[in-house]
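F.,

This is the one I mentioned.
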């Protein structure tokens, strides 16, 4: 076909529609071509030209080469922005679900670079040369840290709960308090997960009050029950006229009636958070010691590791989960397994500040304030007016709900339209920065900044303000 296209079947003059090669050669697409590749860019150009033909057939004007190129560039930029990239978290939410929850520190990055860039001894015993147990180090470390007899890692906590119920209670009743039939992020609900596992839900108590007697009556009425399921109320709190059985008492009832006490703990705290003023997140060890036969939890929440789920508890019950056909479908991938090993190694060595989540939670308020003051001073030296402010952050990730996390940060004031412009520049800039925008100001909570992010954050703020 020549430089111009012929008339369309509807009589519209399509001869002015640019050729594909001429659009691809436009200077407007030079950088996009490097970032997206010729093949993908060509597909975008062809799509834009198809849209142009439809517009011309509808009576619209014929676009120039540059018109099409600019449209393609805009579409390509929107596509590229959907790709995951590094973000400076200045929201004050430590476990920000939209930002991947727990950030992974230098130890994990080094482990990924050295162990996962090539081949990895993920499922081989190098001492014997024979096939080894996948995740052996991570599971042994979880046993050591939790006091459990055995452990199994899978790809997230929802998978852990699904596998636990399917392997240990499929086809049989499982008793759950109505006050614990929670919904987690994305609309996933405990009753739906239970139904998918094959377990039969037996609801007891009321929304606000469930007593030991309620569980006992339910077990009397369902002699074939497999278990009681205890679900941690991690992402909400019940206050006021409420009642919930003490953990050990519930375990005693379960074992007296010869049923299992299974627990969806959620957050996965390995260390006691009480000294930090965070009382709403029980540790995995405390659940094991209280009598739960099997405990499931996330590895990417308070534990501070990569996305994953863990099942810990009695050796025979964990073995049953491991043998279930669903276990292979839900197993943890190579890269998150290497990252989890590095995280757990830091726990074993007592190097808690190497875990960014714990470092953020443990940082003294005085140190947080001093950091905010240094950033505010540097902004002032670069001509940007800001103020140091006291803030209240959050643990996030469905952990320690309603428990404030005291913090400090810096605040910028701007007019309404300017405020939105600055916030957008921060989000789409390099590096991307996600602050809090409220009450006519932009807040940068420094508790959630990682090591080495002060200078990049300062530069990003200056660039966003000065345009």
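My design for it:
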């Amino acid at each position: 076909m020549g430089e111009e296209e012929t008339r369309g079947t509807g009589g519209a003059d399509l001869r002015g529609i640019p050729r594909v090669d001429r659009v691809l050669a436009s200077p407007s697409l030079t950088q996009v071509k490097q970032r997206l590749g010729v093949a993908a860019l060509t597909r975008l150009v062809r799509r834009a030209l198809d849209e142009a033909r439809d517009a011309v057939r509808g009576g619209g004007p014929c676009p120039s080469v540059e018109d099409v190129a600019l449209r393609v560039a805009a579409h390509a930029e929107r596509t590229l922005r959907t790709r995951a990239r590094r973000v400076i978290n200045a929201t004050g939410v430590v476990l920000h679900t939209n930002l991947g929850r727990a950030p992974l520190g230098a130890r994990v990055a080094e482990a990924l670079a050295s162990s996962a860039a090539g081949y990895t001894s993920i499922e081989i015993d190098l001492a014997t040369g024979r096939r080894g147990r996948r995740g052996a180090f991570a599971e042994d470390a979880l046993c050591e840290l939790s006091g459990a007899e055995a452990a199994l890692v899978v790809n997230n906590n929802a998978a852990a709960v699904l596998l636990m119920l399917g392997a240990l209670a499929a086809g049989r009743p499982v008793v759950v308090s109505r006050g614990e039939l929670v919904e987690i992020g994305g609309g996933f609900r405990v009753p739906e997960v239970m139904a998918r596992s094959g377990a039969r839900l037996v609801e007891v108590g009321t929304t606000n009050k469930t007593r030991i007697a309620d569980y006992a009556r339910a077990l009397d009425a369902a002699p074939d029950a497999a278990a009681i399921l205890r679900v941690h109320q991690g992402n909400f709190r019940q206050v006021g006229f409420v009642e919930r059985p003490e953990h050990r008492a519930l375990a005693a009832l379960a074992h007296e009636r010869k049923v299992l006490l299974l627990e969806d703990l959620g957050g996965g705290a390995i260390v006691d958070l009480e000294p930090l003023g965070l009382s709403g997140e029980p540790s995995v060890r405390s659940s094991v010691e209280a009598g739960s036969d099997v405990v499931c939890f996330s590895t990417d929440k308070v534990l501070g590791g990569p996305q994953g789920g863990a099942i810990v508890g009695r050796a025979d019950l964990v073995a049953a989960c491991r043998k279930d056909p669903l276990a292979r479908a839900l197993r943890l991938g190579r890269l998150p397994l290497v990252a989890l090993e590095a995280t757990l190694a830091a726990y074993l060595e007592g190097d808690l500040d190497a875990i960014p989540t714990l470092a953020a939670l443990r940082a003294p308020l005085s140190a947080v304030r001093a950091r905010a003051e240094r950033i505010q001073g540097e902004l002032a030296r670069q001509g940007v007016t800001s103020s140091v402010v006291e803030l209240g952050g959050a643990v996030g990730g469905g952990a320690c709900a309603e428990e404030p996390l005291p913090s400090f940060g810096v605040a910028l004031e701007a007019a309404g339209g300017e405020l939105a412009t600055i916030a957008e520049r921060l989000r789409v800039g390099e590096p991307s920065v996600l602050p809090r925008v409220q009450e006519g100001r932009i807040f940068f909570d420094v508790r959630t900044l990682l090591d080495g992010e002060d200078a990049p954050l300062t530069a990003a703020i200056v660039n966003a303000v000065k345009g």
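The chain has a mean pLDDT of 91.

Talk soon.
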